[in-house]
Amino acid sequence: MVALSSLRRARWLNLIMIAVLGVCVGMLAVGLVTERERISTLIAAVADRLGTELVSRDPARSAVAMPVCRSSSTQTCVIDGDTIRLYGESIRLQSLDAPELFSPSCHAERQLAELATYRLSELLSGAPFEVVRGDKDRYGRTLARLRTEDGWVGSRLVEDGLAQWWDNSRGWC
Fold first, then answer.
1. Residue 145 pLDDT more than 90?
2. Distance of CA 2 to the CA centre of its chain
């Protein structure tokens, strides 16, 4: 039931965003708004109210670098195979479990964790991506889905064998 309501919410959010984008394009077309930055500001404000963040859809303007974190002070980076830090906010990929990088149960899990971490960095670096936020987890991280032009990032990690859908069991060793 929860998944269904989340799916409905996501669909409504997408429809609202499409409507807002349509209005913005219409306003631009008839000359009511002449500055591209005002349109971007309006879209960002609406996305913020809806709980969706467009990091960027314009590669020429944004290419957010997502390197692997080298220190806790890095504001935007990949922490491990299922967690990123975006402008200081910790974001955990929703419904996904990647091998543990910092407390692996075996050597094989550690190796997979490193591959998953670098793959997540590769999927997000230099490409515009969207953050679709959900609730917070017990550690205070934002649960979210990430989408690039190529599709959902979590699905790509699962397809690559570097993550699994969360089912409350661990099986990396």
1. yes
2. 20
